[in-house]
Automatic annotation (TrEMBL):
Lineage: Bacteria, Bacillati, Actinomycetota, Actinomycetes, Streptosporangiales
Superkingdom in the source lineage: Bacteria
GO molecular function per UniProt: hydrolase activity
Name listed for the protein in its UniProt record: NTP pyrophosphohydrolase
Keyword Hydrolase among record annotations: yes
Keywords on record: Hydrolase
Length: 131
């Protein structure tokens, strides 16, 4: 969220809600570069999770697609602690399944941790251009 000067620091949950809605819309268009998106929210930004799940129950962590449906296009992760640690945990899971993983971050240390697990990493400008 920090890549946008839209006042996100004053209301992190509202900023997370805006960004998540945009990524969800991108995922549903089906013309994006990813088959599935995972949005990791930490701190006050986590307050957006129940609002998003209320808008669309398919985003809930315990929701499972019906028989014959593909994987859900967007999954929300509410990081109980460090968002970076949650992201690295997700990357490790994805890579362990021998799937490709692309992380969007401007954080150098997170970039390094993800690349060490063989994930690709791009900056937030890449995502903002898609949105």
């Amino acid at each position: 969220m920090g890549a946008r000067a839209d006042g996100w620091w004053r209301d992190r949950a509202a900023a997370a809600l805006r960004l998540c809605r945009e990524v969800i819309a991108l995922a549903r268009r089906g013309d994006g570069p990813a088959g599935a998106w995972m949005l990791v929210l930490e701190g006050r930004a986590r307050d957006a999770v129940p609002l998003l799940e209320e808008e669309d129950p398919s985003l809930a962590a315990d929701w499972a697609p019906a028989e014959g449906e593909g994987p859900r296009p967007v999954r929300l992760v509410s990081a109980p602690g460090s968002g970076d640690d949650a992201i690295v945990g997700v990357v490790a899971e994805v890579v362990a399944r021998d799937e490709s993983c692309l992380v969007v971050t401007a954080d150098r240390r997170l970039r390094q941790r993800c690349e060490e697990l063989n994930a690709s990493v791009v900056g937030p400008g890449w995502l903002l251009r898609l949105l």
